[in-house]
Structure formats: structure tokens, C-alpha cells
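Sample A.
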Amino acid sequence: MSIRVLIVDQRASARAGLALLVDAEDDLETVGEAESAAQAASGTVAGDADVVVLDAGLRAEDGVDAIERLVDQRPDGKVVVVSVQDEPGRAREAFERGASGYVLRQSVETDLVQAIREVAAGGRYVNPELGARLIAAETAELRRAEDPLSDREREVLRLLALGHTNQEIAAKLVISVRTAEAHRAHIMQKLRLSTRAELVRYAMDEGLLET
């Protein structure tokens, strides 16, 4: 059986273009169109759709906000968001709201059909390049959450590991010697280190000495 698709976009021309992409495939079928999430949610056709292709730039309401309404109406249905925004944070928000796919408007001709098929099969889809950036961003956030040191303390740690004195660190960072000494004490306390050798080893393990 064909995968039934509902297209939600405020522009008739955009809906027509997306419908052409969908209906050109033997295993996909456009079963309806709507110009707003409210119209899609109130229409009977939404209940027949396996996948909703949703424009993230709706005027009446943010397309990302509309995801929850569509998912609540049909928990078994899937939502693929089409957006011009290629920020990892925006994609992550869409997935957190219940989307199963995130396709960039500029690559919709190459990505949309694959996204529909993958989410209909129970998977998730995100543009490969954006997906890599999303993973990198999440990894960086996790690292920051787990790292007990502030950015300034990591900077001081690096200089200490390179052999700089408190006076030299103060001059390089334009801070007082007393502040540099305080940073050093806090670093040693937070990391539970007692010697310079341990400090250097930690900096090496964290990649702080790499050029």
C-alpha cells in the first residue's frame, strides 16, 4: 500500500511542488493539503495520513509549535518538518516536540522522499550534514555539562600545563596575579590534583596542549 501524505504549507505553490515530488513515487500518495496546522488538525484527511509534511514557517503559528497538535491528534502518524533554518538547535527542538524528520527546504528535492519513507517505517530522518552538526553540538553540550571547569579556568589550566608562571598567566590574560593564583587553586581543588605533573597529565588527556 502507498504511504499516505498530508502536506501543510501556507503557500499554494509550495504545496503543489511538494505534492509533485510525492506523487511521482509509486509508493507515495498525497491524500490532502492544508494551509495551516489548525486546518490540518480539524480536517478529516489528517486522520488518514501516515506522514504529515509540515512547513516550519507557517504565519498563523510556528510550525514547530504545530507539531504537538498534529501528533496529539494522530499518535500513530509521523511528522516531517520542512524548514529553511539549518541550525542544529532548531532541528533538535522539532524532534523534542514530536517530529520524526527534519528536511531543509534547499535540499527538499533530494531529501523529502527518503525522509517520508524512513519515518513511515518507524525511523527518523535528518539532512546528513545537519545531522552531523547536531551530534557535534550535543556532544559539546554534554562535555560542557560534565566539565567542572569554566572556560577561563581551562585557559589558565592550559597555560599552567605549558609551564607559565602565575605572573606570566596574569599578563597574558590581562588579570591580576592574585586572580591567576585563585584560578590555579580552584582548578587544583575541582580536579582534586596536588602536583603540577598531575595537572599536566590532565591537560594532555583533555587535548588542551594540542596545537
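Sample B.
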Amino acid sequence: MIDLHSHVLPGLDDGTRDLDEALALCAAAADDGTRVLAATPHVRDDYPTTADEMEAALEALRAAGPPLDLVPGAELDVAEIERPDAELARLGLGGSRDWLLVETPYLGWPLDFAERLFRLRMRGFRAVLAHPERNRDVQDRPELLEPLVAAGTLVQLTAASVDGRLGGAARRCSRTLLDRRLAHLIASDAHNPDVREAGLSTAVAAVGDKRLAWWLTVEVPGAILDGSEPPPRPEVGPRRRFFR
């Protein structure tokens, strides 16, 4: 499996605190079946991570010998996507020049969200929208995502939302987004042992359809890494097969 959202780089944000903890997170992810992990530290007011800091921390962690492949990235607050193109390119998801991981606010829904992502697309970048199922507005009105997805945005669900560890509201919204074809990949958003554990296998089991789970955790994230167009979503069985 390929996990394109984690806070594994030590000391940059609210993720792992030191190298030992970062290696432990990598080991847990590998034991769970993850073969590629994206290091995506926050880039926002409280954690103003730079591309230089992300790259240096990534190289240090790689040098320590984690048991999986680590690729670069960042989780950008929507206000941070106005940064210069050259810096955004260095923060691309998985090292891609085309894709950026953009954080969904936990509270509220920016009225100009679609416009901001459209301007980003006009600059040559596409967005992967991180964990919208945890936003109360999206839980109440999942149709908010429809124009974004129609314009080319991909939606990432958090594994702990899909399998219920983050509560019933996030789980129900995850199901709704999958049913409405408004979700495209699952990632752990792993932070540290005290916040959110690594691994995607419990979410894969919760999806209940092996073909769809493969698309969400291998095919779509793999296309992002390769710089290719994500493959079409597979046809699946009745909704009752989801989230057994």
C-alpha cells in the first residue's frame, strides 16, 4: 500500500518528536503493509515549515534506514497555496510537480475554496484535499465537494475515519463520500503513538470491497507518484458491502 499523508518527520510540527519515534512510526507502517510513506509536515501559521526544512529532515530520516520508501511532500493550509510556484513545486506530494496536499479546515468552509483551488490549477498544480470528512460542514453537506471534484481535485480520506476510530460522524461521512464517488484515496495522517497510529489495513478491511480498496490505497496514490492520470474508479457491488 501507498500512504501519502503522514507527519513522520521529527520536530517539524505536531507529529513525531524525535528520530526514534519517527523510525518506530515507519516500522509500524511497514509491518501493516505500507511500502511507500509520504512525509507531509504541516505548512501553516503555527508550523511554518519551509521546503529546506522538509528536505533536510527527510534526508536525515532516510539516512537512518527506515524499512520503507520515504517520499517528500507537505500538508498546506489553504492560505499557503499562494506561495511562489518554485517553492510549491518543492513541496509537491510524493515529489510530484503536479499535485499538492491541501488541508481541509476542521471548522468552517472557506467561501472562496473552489476559487482558490481553481487559481492553483491555472498555475499548473492540482490539489489532493486532505480529510474533508472530518469537517462539520462537509458532514452536513457532502455536496460541497462536488464542484471541487468535478474540477479535478482528488479527495483523501483518513484511515481512522473510514474504520471508525475517529467517531461515527467521520465514519458516516466517509461512507457517503465513497458512495457518491467523491473520495479517491485513503491515507493514515499518522502523527505519533499518542495522536494517530500508522497503517491502512483496518481501513482497507472496513471498505469491504477489495477492488475498491486497492484503487484507494495503491492505484490512485501510485498514479500521483508516477505523475500519471489516476485510473478510473472500479465498479463495485451494492452499498451494503462497504464498511462491514
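B remarks: The CA atoms of residues 205 and 243 lie 8 Å apart. The first helix runs from residue 19 to 31.
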